[in-house]
Amino acid sequence: MRHEDIRLANASGVGNQVVLFGARTGGDGIGGASVLASESFDDTKKPSKRPAVQVGDPFAEKVLIECCLELFKGSVVEGIQDLGAAGISCATSELASNGEGGMHVDLTKVLLRDPTLTPGEILMSESQERMMAVVSPENVERFEAIMKKWGVEYSFLGEVTDTGRLTIEWDGQVIVDVDPRTVAHDGPTYERPYARPAGQDALQADHFTGSAADDARPRGEQLGEAIKAFMASPNMCSKSWITNQYDRYVQGNTALSMPDDSGVVRVDEHTNLGVALATDASPRFTYLDPYEGARASLAEAYRNVATVGARPVAVSDCLNFGSPEDPDVMWQFAEAVRGLADGCMELGVPVTGGNVSLYNQTGGKAINPTPVVAMMGVMDDVTRRTPSGWAPEHDGQAIYLLGTTRDELDGSEWARFKGHLGGLPRRLIWRLNVSLAICS
Predict the structure, then answer these.
(1) Binding site residues for ATP, as ranges?
(2) Residues annotated in a binding site
(3) How do beta strands 254-256 and 263-266 pair?
(4) Disulfide-capable partner of 266 in 115, 135, 216, 253 (CB 3.0 to 4.6 Å)?
């Protein structure tokens, strides 16, 4: 997809048509992300809200993607939005809010997979493989021709207006009449109280003793057995039983995949231009020090992209925490966000988007704070990628370890294996991370 083909999520142009296309709307996923992002669960009872799980269809998604690419290439749509969390309610409000006028939609025109759905359920359904587009009247025939070519269902729901309002009707009755910005952009701002947990100092003072200073550390044959048991632990063992369930070589443009440090995909078959992607998280480090732990996740993703030969350029993130109503958890969240912001400024990579998942806890006990960082890098030529493994032709070549190894095992996987969580995460020297990336 070329830059000039990009279409944004906005609804402009009075009289332009609003169309929903792709899969039909069903009861799956109603309230899925919107409930799960704000619901805690207890071992002894069911959650007060149990959303249906979204049912994905990879083949339908592929057809929808190809259909959209043809729409973009032909400049057939004025604006477009995918339907994710909160479904039609989110897509209509965001399109209208980003546009210059308003929008009117007739909900009775939505193609349904389940005819028993109520208006509220239709608005909130998170059925997969759906898109909403804005099409000018002169492009309607071209739009319909492309839909028929790919066998994609569609329905025209309404049009862009000049009212500055989002109105949605059902069976002739207006059920929504709002300023779309109040839904999409001007939501309430919470000033949650937060404070450093009372036990944080004691936690950080509890250092792991299984380091070089520990006389009880395994030696000789014991060391070999310990390493085998360590490598069999859930975090260290092979994940191929998961990754091998998916075809990661579709269309033949995958240059690197598991178990390499980053996935690399060729995006231009003529120039071999490609992108590298890596995701990393350090929940144990972040529990010990949310600021430094979040930075550690960022730095690891940065290095993983750089080591395959790509230039890190952008970040996305997924911030997973417990209840923000708990001042301890809110402090973890605030510190982690501050750490990510400072780290991105120092590395010179912007955060282009992301999401937040809160209330991840059971019986009042929150998960370890888990900011997941996704780093994207650009490669001018994917044929020059650097894999993380060794091949037979590498026999006789020297192996170098770059950087300095220090006695820093607090929060490490080895400490977890030995049943310990305490102390301070490893100390990051940012200029060395940048230097290592340049060396790669």
Answers:
(1) 317, 354
(2) 54, 82, 126-128, 317, 354-355, 357
(3) antiparallel
(4) 253
And the tokens for 46?
A: 């069911």
pTM as predicted: 0.82
Q: Which CATH number fits domain 3-185: 3.90.650.10, 3.40.47.10, 2.60.40.1820, 3.40.50.300?
A: 3.90.650.10
Which residues are CB-contacts of 384 (< 8 A; sequence separation ≥ 6)? Answer: 309
C-alpha dist (Å) from residue 199 to 196, 204, 217, 328, 431 = 8, 9, 28, 10, 32
Mean pLDDT for 100-104 is: 92
Tens of pLDDT, residues 11-54? 899 999 999 999 999 987 775 555 555 555 554 444 444 345 56
Half-sphere exposure (Cβ direction) of 378: Cα atoms closer than 13 Å: 7
CA–CA separation, 5 vs 142, rounded Å?
A: 16
pLDDT of 48: 41
Compute the 3-state secondary structure of the chain and give helix, strand, coil in percent, each to the nearest 5: 35, 20, 45
Domain 199-389+401-439 has CATH 3.30.1330.10: yes
Q: Tell me if residue 161 falls in helix, strand or coil.
A: strand
Annotated binding residues for Mg(2+), as ranges? 82, 355
Distance CA(37)–CA(360), nearest Å, equals 8
**Strand order through the sheet with 311-320:** 254-256, 263-266, 274-280, 370-379, 311-320, 351-357
C-alpha 5 chain-centroid distance: 24
CB burial string 190-229: b at 16+ within 10 A, e below:
eeeebeeeeebeeeeebbbebbeeeeeeeeeeeeeebeee
- Annotated domain spans of the chain: 3-185, 199-389+401-439
In angstroms, what CA-CA distances link 20 with 80, 153, 155? 10, 9, 6
Q: What is the pLDDT of residue 54?
A: 63
SS3 labels along 284-313 = HHHHHCHHHHHHHHHHHHHHHHHHCCCEEE
Question: What is the pLDDT at residue 388?
Answer: 85
Helix (H) or strand (E) holding 265: strand 263-266
The mean pLDDT of 246-264, rounded to a whole number, is 85
Query: How many residues are recorded in the chain?
Result: 440
Residues making up the annotated binding site for substrate are: 54, 126-128, 357
Helical H runs in 348-429? Answer: 413-417
